[in-house]
């Protein structure tokens, strides 16, 4: 099984939470729907109509990219909750860059997110470094998702 297909299963499930069908989400990420059911079945449930729907949360692996001093690193996290926490961080960083308001950054400073190996994922809050990376375009919306292939 190609690594890309395995990683994209979590993305398919995430899209399904946005009311996208299994078939459409699978097509979008280039994964056979049967592969999603086989590898991501713990994150899915069957509806009364026999279709698949995503459960509110999951424990699937997701490779994500986070900014750190000097650049970005790829981290693998387990579960939609950890991915959502990293997304909140990215939103706070972008909001700081857009407005100069560090309220959300300060609020999230004490939150801990663990990667799939149990290590804490670093959270870049240094305003000068955030500004530098923002100027380079390293904090764009899509940049949280690891790119493959």
User: Which sheet architecture does the biggest sheet show?
Assistant: 2 strands, antiparallel
What string, H for helix and E for strand, traces the elements in order? HHHEEEEHHH
Low-confidence residue ranges: none
Number of helices: 6
Beta-strand percentage?
5-15%
Helical residues, percent: 40-55%
Q: Count every beta strand, where a strand is a DSSP E run of 2 or more residues.
A: 4
Shape category: elongated
What is the mean pLDDT?
89
**CA-atom Rg in angstroms:** 17 Å
Class per helix and strand makeup = alpha+beta
Spatial strand order of the main sheet: 1-2
Straight-line N-to-C gap: 14 Å
Number of domains: 2
Describe it.
The chain has about 150 residues and is of the alpha+beta class. It has 2 domains: about 5-55, Arc Repressor Mutant, subunit A (Orthogonal Bundle), CATH 1.10.10; about 60-145, no CATH class. Helix content is about 45%, strand content about 15%. The chain has 6 helices and 4 strands; from the N terminus they run H-H-H-E-E-E-E-H-H-H. The chain has helices at about 5-15, 20-30, 35-40, 80-100, 105-110, 125-135; strands at about 45, 50-55, 60-70, 70-80. It has a two-stranded antiparallel ribbon. It has a two-stranded antiparallel ribbon with strand order 3-4. Helix 1 (about 5-15) packs across helix 3. The longest helix is centred in the middle third of the chain and has 20 residues, at about 80-100. The protein is elongated and about 50 Å long. The relative contact order is 0.14.
């Amino acid at each position: 099984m190609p690594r890309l297909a395995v990683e994209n299963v979590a993305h398919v499930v995430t899209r399904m939470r946005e009311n996208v069908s299994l078939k459409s989400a699978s097509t979008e990420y280039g994964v056979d729907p049967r592969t999603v059911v086989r590898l991501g079945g713990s994150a899915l449930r069957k509806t009364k109509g026999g279709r698949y729907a995503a459960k509110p949360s999951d424990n699937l692996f997701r490779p994500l990219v986070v900014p750190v001093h000097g650049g970005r690193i790829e981290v693998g996290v387990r579960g939609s909750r950890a991915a959502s926490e990293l997304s909140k961080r990215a939103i706070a960083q972008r909001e700081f860059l857009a407005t100069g308001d560090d309220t959300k950054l300060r609020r999230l400073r004490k939150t801990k997110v663990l990667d799939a190996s149990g290590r804490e994922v670093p959270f870049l809050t240094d305003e000068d470094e955030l500004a530098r990376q923002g100027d380079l375009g390293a904090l764009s919306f899509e940049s949280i998702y690891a790119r493959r292939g």
